[in-house]
Design goal:
eight-stranded antiparallel beta sheet
C-alpha cells in the first residue's frame, strides 16, 4: 500500500549569519550544490581505472526571495558593509533544515558572493542571492510520515 506524505514549504528553515530568512519566492527558492564532484575517474591507456577523491567541499547556495521580503534589506546591509567598508562579521554560518524530513545543510564560512540582480516589472519580481560556501556539509534525506 502506498504511503501518504505531506510537504510544507514553510517547514524549510534557512539562516545565515544571524538572519532568519522570510519571504521566499514561489517555485524553487533554495538550491545548494558543490563546486566539484566528490570523486573523479582517471583511466589509463590500458583501461585501468583510478577513483580520485576531491577534497574540495566548497559550493554555492542560491536563495530566491520575493521582491517584498524584508530579508532583502538585511542582506543588502551585510553586502554593503562587506563590499564597501570591509567590516568584519560579514562571513558566517549558513544553515538549511527541512523539518518535513531529514535533510540538513550546513556551511560554517559563507558570504554573499554578489548582490541580487534587480529588475522591476508590472508584476512583483524576485531577488536571487548567491552565497559562496568554503565547505558544505550535506545530509540529503527523505521525508517523515
Amino acid at each position: 500500500m502506498p504511503q501518504f506524505r505531506q510537504y510544507d514549504p514553510l517547514d524549510i528553515k534557512m539562516s545565515w549569519n544571524g538572519i532568519i530568512f522570510t519571504g521566499f519566492a514561489e517555485g524553487t527558492f533554495i538550491t545548494v550544490e558543490r563546486n566539484e564532484d566528490a570523486f573523479n575517474m582517471q583511466v589509463g591507456s590500458g583501461g585501468d581505472v583510478v577513483r580520485v577523491k576531491s577534497n574540495n567541499r566548497s559550493g554555492l547556495a542560491t536563495l530566491t526571495l520575493m521582491q517584498s521580503s524584508p530579508t532583502n534589506d538585511l542582506l543588502s546591509t551585510k553586502s554593503v558593509l562587506d563590499e564597501r567598508l570591509g567590516v568584519a562579521g560579514q562571513v558566517g554560518p549558513l544553515s538549511i533544515v527541512d523539518f518535513n524530513g531529514t535533510t540538513k545543510i550546513f556551511a560554517l564560512n559563507t558570504w554573499i558572493q554578489k548582490p541580487a540582480q534587480v529588475e522591476f516589472s508590472n508584476t512583483a519580481s524576485q531577488r536571487e542571492w548567491m552565497f559562496a560556501c568554503a565547505s558544505i556539509d550535506m545530509f540529503i534525506g527523505g521525508h517523515v510520515l
